[in-house]
């Protein structure tokens, strides 16, 4: 998995401001415990370079990058210290070109068509959108994604634990950045358990898992019809017929043939099927690649290989 894929799989890229390098490793470990394995240490303080070096040397599972990089000197210093990616608040051609020529992942801030075109000219397809709240948020990025369909954004500024789900659900969002999961105050106070908790909550909100419906396998169309009629008779659930299945309300799908899963399937909606697949893989749950469906290059549905109590699990894009 390359740097760009790691950022996407994390969903949230913590913007970490450190006043003292001694807190760097503890912060990285708190993020990792919360399921977040990337961090952007900003060059807003004198401790940035030493903090990046400490994490790079002591936390091999953490993908550490440098943020608020505004000069080529900072960029070179960050990579010397072990930064694997560079994030800038704006577009600086000198910094971006150096990163591209030296194989360093870079995400410059681009909020106008002109800036996006400049980034594209240098081969980039992921840019930072900062400050997102000031420059129009989701509606602005949606508008920009029209002419720039190959570009994805990492919005920072205005994203939080309450709205992260709607950002992640948008097809033009690569990941989101933010400091709410590891505030400067919490780091300084040593509130590392709180940081871990906020990371877990952010990941859960990003995925937004919810049960869509339960599928029940039947041998044929007549058997499926009988099940739906019985559900309707007992609970007044409206029946809707389809090609391969019937629905008794929106919550029960009755298959007209024996489909995936010994007994049927459980459909679970998520803000991002691709993010869900990556996260579940870390927990040991692989997906069936042959079952994946795509729309405009984005995975929108997939079945897991595992069964749960005789039921297959079907992931669906919200």
TrEMBL record:
<dbReference type="GO" id="GO:0008675">
    <property type="term" value="F:2-dehydro-3-deoxy-phosphogluconate aldolase activity"/>
</dbReference>
<keyword id="KW-0119">Carbohydrate metabolism</keyword>
<comment type="similarity">
    <text>Belongs to the KHG/KDPG aldolase family.</text>
</comment>
<dbReference type="InterPro" id="IPR013785">
    <property type="entry name" value="Aldolase_TIM"/>
</dbReference>
<dbReference type="Pfam" id="PF01081">
    <property type="entry name" value="Aldolase"/>
</dbReference>
<dbReference type="InterPro" id="IPR000887">
    <property type="entry name" value="Aldlse_KDPG_KHG"/>
</dbReference>
<dbReference type="InterPro" id="IPR031338">
    <property type="entry name" value="KDPG/KHG_AS_2"/>
</dbReference>
<dbReference type="InterPro" id="IPR031337">
    <property type="entry name" value="KDPG/KHG_AS_1"/>
</dbReference>
<comment type="pathway">
    <text>Carbohydrate acid metabolism; 2-dehydro-3-deoxy-D-gluconate degradation; D-glyceraldehyde 3-phosphate and pyruvate from 2-dehydro-3-deoxy-D-gluconate: step 2/2.</text>
</comment>
<comment type="subunit">
    <text>Homotrimer.</text>
</comment>
<keyword id="KW-0704">Schiff base</keyword>
<keyword id="KW-0456">Lyase</keyword>
<protein>
    <recommendedName>
        <fullName>2-dehydro-3-deoxy-phosphogluconate aldolase</fullName>
        <ecNumber>4.1.2.14</ecNumber>
    </recommendedName>
</protein>
